[in-house]
Amino acid sequence: MSASRSTPRVSIITPSYNQASYLEATIQSVLTQDYPNMEYIIVDGGSTDGSVEIIRKYAAKLAWWVSERDKGQTDAINKGFARATGDILAWINSDDTYLPGAVAEAASYLQAHPEAGMVYGDANLVDGEGNLLGPFPARQTDYHRLRQGYVHIPQQSSFFRAALWRQVGPLDPSFYFAMDYDLWVRLAKIAPLHYYPRLWANFRLHSSGKSVKSDDRCWPEMLKVHWREGGSVFSWLVVKAYLRPLLYGWLPLNLRLRLRRKI
Fold first, then answer.
1. pLDDT in tens, 42-53
2. Is-contact 190 111, C-beta < 8 A?
3. Is residue 4 in some structural domain?
4. 62 C-beta neighbours (distance < 10 Å), count
């Protein structure tokens, strides 16, 4: 189906690697969205855990999919967006899920607010079994707040314009953890990011997830963005990058995420 003014095409990418335990729930959460002009692309990194068999079950409903060795999640997302034809882009990781109506609401918001380069909603924090842990601390941010480390954007519930991606993309392949933060800074530099307080996604925290295993890699990569943007050593982001691990790095990730409301 071609994109139209009334229903712009939304392209959604799922990067995945050995996430068979959660992948099907992610796929179903995308394919059951009540939006008429959506394309879904899955980029698997050569999984050996049964993920490919799950993807094949839904192949007829996918715009494109592949399972091959790649250079990691960032590379997979770039590969997916290179295939995307939508007016609006998003990615949902293979252990997260959309809530019903998320895509339609995001597309409608961007249509109603042409000045917005990206819209993001709220997300739940859930455990490996899908039990609610609490809310992700989302709230309004912008370029200057992002530069100070006030992120407050759940990646799972963010949708941005393809026209802007063509200006600032692709994702930096050297980033492992903060590639989304890097993208948001680049987007916010040229267009407003809008927070819309609607619940759109579930952010799953589990023992094998990157957010739990590799959270310590986030701030060094955020600092890389800071230096690239001409940031000063006398910056609140620099202070937080060095003090936060000492102050509460020992806390469970869900508590650290909640503390972002205040820090």
1. 999 999 999 999
2. no
3. no
4. 17
What is the tens place of the pLDDT at every residue in 122-158? Answer: 999 999 999 999 999 899 999 999 999 899 999 999 9
Is residue 225 within 8 A of residue 185, CB to CB? The reply is yes
Q: What's the CATH code of the domain at 254?
A: 3.90.550.10
Distance CA 176, CA 174 (A): 7
38 assigned to some structural domain: yes
Q: Where are the beta strands (DSSP E) in the chain?
A: 10-16, 38-44, 64-67, 88-91, 97-98, 118-126, 132-135, 158-161, 193-204
Provide the token pair at 48: 């050996």
pTM of the complete model = 0.88
230: left (phi over 0), alpha (psi -120 to 50) or beta: left
> What are 216-222's contacts with CB under 8 Å, separation 24+?
216/245, 216/249, 217/176, 217/177, 217/178, 218/177, 218/178, 218/181, 219/244, 219/245, 221/175, 221/176, 221/177, 221/178, 221/179, 221/181, 221/182, 222/149, 222/178, 222/181
The tokens for 169 are 């993309």
How far apart, in whole angstroms, are the C-alpha atoms of residue 172 and residue 24? 28
The H-or-E segment that residue 178 falls in is none
